[in-house]
Amino acid sequence: MEQEVIRLKNATFYAYHGVLSNEQISGGKFEVDVDLYGDYSRAAQTDKLRDTVNYEEVFRSIEDLVTGKRYYLIESLGVHIAEKIIEKFTLVNKVVVRVRKHHPQIGGVVDFVEFETEKARGS
User: Fold this and answer.
1) Rounded CA gap, 5 and 39, in Å?
2) Is 117 within 8 Å of 97 (Cβ atoms)?
3) In CA terms, which of 4, 5, 31, 80 is 20 to 30 Å from 90?
């Protein structure tokens, strides 16, 4: 089986995640990257959307999770995204998800904090 990857980079959302109450009130910028590992050789041969992962649907699934519920931790958000992708998109046999929270309130200057998780089908 071939192992290829489709990547979505910097899917950007305004959302209300965080432990602090003012983070959940004022919100902030979040970015998500996903690496979708699978065998896409059939799609390369047929040039048909039905033979690959529709990344517009992947984006919408991510958007639903990022904007549909408030999480205290980006760790929890990232794991939920990975689980949903593996559950919903059967061609994906492994996913790597990165969630970035910009300008976290940590008492210092930081561009962003990033969490990364990996989930494989059957694990």
Assistant:
1) 8
2) yes
3) 31
